[in-house]
Design a protein that fits this description.
Layout (H helix, E strand, L loop, with lengths): L12 E5 L8 H11 L6 E5 L1 H10 L3 H9 L3 H5 L2 E6 L2 E3 L1 H11 L13 E8 L5 E4 L4 H8 L9 E3 L2 E5 L8 H6 L4 E5 L17 H4 L10 H12 L19 H23 L4 E3 L14 H14 L1 H9 L1
Parallel strand pairs: 1-2, 1-9, 2-5, 9-10
Antiparallel strand pairs: 3-4, 5-6, 5-8, 7-8
Helix pairs in contact: 1-11, 2-6
Length: 318
């Protein structure tokens, strides 16, 4: 009887792209550096900003997205904010959807049509359960996954209200495994983030005034200036030993609360379902809405892969 040759099963590689708002551009650097090592993701699972980058990757539009975010400055971001917001959120949903349509994937593209297997995670507002988007419009999966409370209105989907997936599964390792991944590379953007506000230095005069000067009589421009000011360096300290602790503004309070929550949830989920490879880029000085710091975040993503390249290659070839 002829010997049967044993063929080694090639493991399916999943990449779990975690939540983290502006820190999420680091995912671009991670995916670039993995590709340079010859690592091709078979499955992508994204949460919040990870859903944006993951969808762009799965649709073949990562180049477009990277080029656009590298061009961002502080005032470019103002167009995504509603200067007369409702009580439900500050983000101008239609403008954001236009951005996704141009640089992530077409509005009507479905998960089934993507060249790579991709899914995103959101949270049912009523029950707190996870919602996994694996079919239907990719745009719906992105908008639901990024609906951060306080900035976005909840996303309506099939008679349910959905909010940010980071509330329940900030780094969706479990979703990668459910989609069939044998080896999961997880990207955690929330390492050491919860303590960032108390380690930063007080803002300089230049930082505090780094917004356009407008006439006090011009209401619209004054509102624009206020929104631009909210996009300044959120790593400014909330405490200095020689002066009383100042009251945090709205964005600082939201940022600090979300950072603490995501850090705790990530630690808990990782303990129960650890990935084979964990990447934690050094991003603690990039704030919640500092999307204009894309180059720094992308570089940090590249660097973490380079630092762990030997571990990555060893794990994948075992």
């Amino acid at each position: 009887m002829a010997d049967k040759k044993m063929t080694k099963h090639k493991p399916r590689i999943g990449v779990a792209l975690g939540s983290g708002s502006a820190r999420g551009w680091a995912h671009i650097g991670v995916l670039r550096a993995l590709a340079e090592l010859g690592v091709q993701a078979d499955i992508i699972a994204g949460c919040s900003v990870g859903a944006i980058v993951g969808a762009a990757y799965a649709a073949g539009n990562l180049d477009l997205l990277e080029q656009e975010v590298l061009s961002f400055n502080k005032l470019d971001l103002v167009r995504f904010f509603d200067l007369n917001p409702s009580l439900n959120g500050f983000v101008h949903r239609e403008r954001l959807q236009q951005f996704f349509n141009s640089y992530v994937c077409p509005t009507e593209q479905t998960f089934e049509q993507l060249p790579y297997k991709f899914a995103s995670v959101a949270t049912y507002l009523g029950s707190g359960r996870e919602m996994w988007f694996t079919e239907g419009r990719v745009a719906d999966g992105i908008m639901a996954s990024i609906s951060l409370p306080g900035l976005f209105a909840p996303f309506a989907y099939q008679d349910q209200w959905l909010v940010d997936g980071g509330l329940v599964n900030p780094v969706p390792v479990s979703l990668c495994r459910a989609l069939g991944a044998d080896i999961v590379i997880a990207v955690n953007l929330n390492g050491a983030i919860a303590r960032r506000h108390f380690q930063a230095q007080p803002p300089s005069v230049e930082q505090a005034t780094d917004v356009p000067v407008v006439a006090e009589t011009d209401t619209a421009k004054r509102a624009l200036s206020q929104v631009a000011a909210s996009l300044r360096d959120y790593s400014a300290a909330l405490f200095t030993p020689n002066r009383p602790m100042p009251t945090p503004n709205l964005i600082e309070a939201i940022a600090g609360s979300i950072n603490i929550m995501q850090d705790k949830i990530t630690r808990s989920r990782m303990a129960g379902d650890p990935p084979e490879i964990l990447l934690t880029p050094k991003l603690s000085d990039i704030g919640l809405l500092e999307f204009y710091r894309a180059q720094e975040a992308i570089t940090a993503g590249r660097e973490v892969v380079q630092r762990l390249s030997l571990e990555i290659e060893t794990t994948l070839n075992t």
